[in-house]
Records
---
Amino acid sequence: MLSIGSVLRRASLIGFPIGSPAGIVAGMIENVTKAPRSPRTPDEWENYFDLRWRVLRAPWNQPRGSEKDERETDSEHFMIVGPDSSALAVGRLHFNTPAEAQIRFMAVDPQAQGHGLGSLVLRECERRARAAGATSIVLNARDDVQKFYVRHGFLVVAPGETMFSAIKHVRMRKEL
């Protein structure tokens, strides 16, 4: 286990001021096992859904519970777990048909963004979809994250819905 002092020293070595929130998170991320996996414990499940709510629903004043839907039990859930069991990045995969998978509820803790964690979760979703026989994968992306998915080979195929009367989405697809 790392001491707070060692985390702060490492964060300062990679360019963040000692004690800054970004510096602390950067030091934590450096020591995270960056292999996405399913939540394992009740605390991890709570942290998983909490991150989804904080990033994808709370900014639009949506109630807790709105970060879940009817497909939770037939989906695969992935997260990158921080050293303190916090959820740093999450995503969910389900199948619309045997050939078409869908990614939903991708979220990265705002303080952990820019470190490749979302890319790791996305690649794991793609890997699992391929392994299960999917030939394509779809998702609905917010306008502000569309470039992230384009960098990973997704193409815009249609306009998407506007959620909460404020968040425009586009439908994206990738052939696997």
---
Amino acid sequence: MSIFGDFFKKEAPLLGLQGSGGGLGFLAGRGGARGTLSGSGGAVYTQGDYKLHVFTFPNSDSFVVTDATPNATVEIFMVASGGSGAPDQGNGGGGGGIVWTNNGGIVISDGTYPITISGASQNHAPGPGNPINARGGDTVFGPSGGITLRAKGGGFGGYFSPNIDKGLDYRTGGCGGGMGNIPGANLPAPDVIGGNGYQPTQPQTFPSATNVLGNTATVLSQGFAGGASNINATSNSSGSGGGGGGAGEVGYGGLPPFPAPTRGRGGDGYQVPSSFLDPFKPVIPNPFLNIGHTDPAFRYFGGGGGGSDHNNNAGTGRNFGVPGGLGGGGRGAIDPGPGTRHGEVGLNDRGGGGGGGSTHSGNGRSGGSGCCIIKYRFQ
């Protein structure tokens, strides 16, 4: 398996929402049923026959469904909050894991569905140890009406420590944090990898009923591992800390064979299909959830934070740190260099991982808060 091929393979967006009116939503189901409902909760936007409900922190709320027809179907997208970047030649925090009803949505009935949105993870996260608040928090839909969906918070970026085997678990999360740098060490491969992304193992509960498209409902639950560090990163001018994993791909390692321009970069987040958000651009705010409509990252969520860089990564021109992944990943610090010694926060409402801080008293920054977006036909 090539480290630059299958290893970085992203989930291809499933464009199962194409229909009349510029791809605004669901096709008529089998037998011509419209599959409509009335809903309330969150910020609500209307375009044509469809509504979009957006839930963000701290406005956790309930999604209340009334007048649902037998095959009323909702599309639900959720991202958890990202993990914090680590201080002192630290690594990027993992992006929030994502949950997406990717086969045309799931059937829903009348009822009240609680929605819990996770806030930002801890800023200036300490280390070493197991700083639980430096992990991102979860975003949850339900439990109610046979539906419980959970997006897991991103992992903490690894910390500069020769005792990295103590508390390995703090790097795990919906998307894993990067690996901590270990000066002069020569550890075996299992000790230099990033944290695991365990979002895919998180159970999701939802009705198996055929949705309005005539499809069997499925739910994508996705998050990737963080990148490894360069084990001599504090003395190796071509090294970086590992990037946090994203919801769309793994974080980039801070050492060869990764090419210098990408070392320590946060993994990109998950890109939702254009048919989910783009038709609502005329009515939603710009920027939407902190990213502008024309920005290439507009449809990305859960980007990993960048690892901190040493000596501008041997002159690769990244003058203000290591980039985070698309979807709100915070930039990592430079050590030394013309940029800041501190990492950059992950974007709120996008679940971006925080960037790692430098060895010159640099701080890692917090991961961004999560969100939940629901779309359905109301008439």
---
Amino acid sequence: MKAKRIVKWTGLGLLLLLVAGFQIAYWSSTNDCGRSIPANAERMKAIRYCEYGAPDDVVKLEQIAKPVPNDNQILVRVRAVSLRFFDGGMLGGSVPGRLLFGLRKPKNTIPGLDFAGTVEAVGGNVTEFKPGDEVFGVKAGALAEYICVRQAGAIALKPANTNFEQAASIPTALVSLQGLRDTARLQAGQKVLINGASGGVGTFAVQIAKAFGAEVTGVCSTKNLDLVRSLGADHVIDYTKEDFTKGDQRYDVIYDLVSNRSFAERRRILKPGGICVLAGIGGSGMHKETLSQFINGLTASFRSRFSNEKFVNFGVDINKKDLAVLRDLTESGKVMPALTKTYPFPETAAAYKYLETGHARGKIAITIE
């Protein structure tokens, strides 16, 4: 009995500590929205969201202090920013989003990652770039007129054959490039099925798989069939009319950006020893299927440990070297961003609202004049 009481009170104590820790973390979660701009600081415009909520309620275009680069940084005049599928989830304040970005309030109040622009100034130790260079890359807080990026960070010269909006869309292709090249180890002549072929990542995956010499089948809705065909897909499947898991075709690789099929269904259409790369959970933002599709991916990965066909969860490595690979693929004409919508800087909230529908085609970019 004494041991039971010890276990009971120990458990209760731990629970109370956990609740108290959460409360402290929640109420101490804050951001820099209340700080004033130093009197001697230059100013710039930036998109900010100081609270969680709907885009129309929380996305604001405000004046903040312009950043000053240190000796190892590049000051970039941002000309365009593209949105990623998870950007909408950052704004809404979902439970996973709060755990990542701040419990009560967002820690980093300027959204955006993928940018393109012109080098405005460089620090004393920077030798790779010079003022006037047109660049693209990845940097948190990109939805601003100016950002500072480390020379060693994810930044590269912009492809010469793209405008700024197109170039800002290219970093998303890191997910496609690394998932197909490094995780799937896709080879020329292999057959690959891309589930979610019309989205921001999927449109790049179709083109990169073709660049690798694969035979590509893209899965999308009726309205997006022509888009996926135009990107080079050898075959397209309209998921509103046909269940791709019930066909006779077998694939060396499934590149799955939706994870809306069971382990058994996907395994059935893999060739012996094939691989399913789990690279997404469908759509943008948080929707009613998000949790089930996330769990579906985790369970599929675990179950594949006991089969010859592998299901592998994939995480992207944002790096300068692969940005250069994507630039070369773009300049060679093998890859081109499927940019379908652009919004002016003051209409950023409208861009987020469109993204949150979960059915965005290709890439969305915001132009910063």
---
Amino acid sequence: MRHKIGYRKLNRTSEHRKALFKNMLNSLIKYEQITTTLPKAKELKPKIDKVITLGKRKNLASKKNLFTQLQSKSSVDKLVKELSQRYEKRNGGYSRVIRAGYRYGDDAPMAVIELVDRDVQAKKVDVKKKIDPAAKPSGDTKVKTEKSTSKKQAK
């Protein structure tokens, strides 16, 4: 029986676990949906709910506490400005865990953890837009590097 056992250790040291959840929190705040293993998602859910609740308090102390937990100014800004507005009327339950089958290779149970009422466009934050080849200027294609020109000059 697992009485009085507070959390899953996930076969990691305490520092590794702390860094893992900090990175996962930052990713979840940035993209609003991430795919991970089921035990990690289940452990992340209460953490993201507490962080969003802390972001809903609009004072400097809570902002500083958020920064100590997340260590990312962009995540803190998004929490305080966007997510606190979105979940202003909601009392908890800011995230959901959806089972997503089993991973090929080691058969680990996978899950998608996402924010409720998420912004679908947040997933595409880092995706660069494709530039039309017709719009490119053709004169900039012949850029030589300094190394190639210096080798030719040495011969």
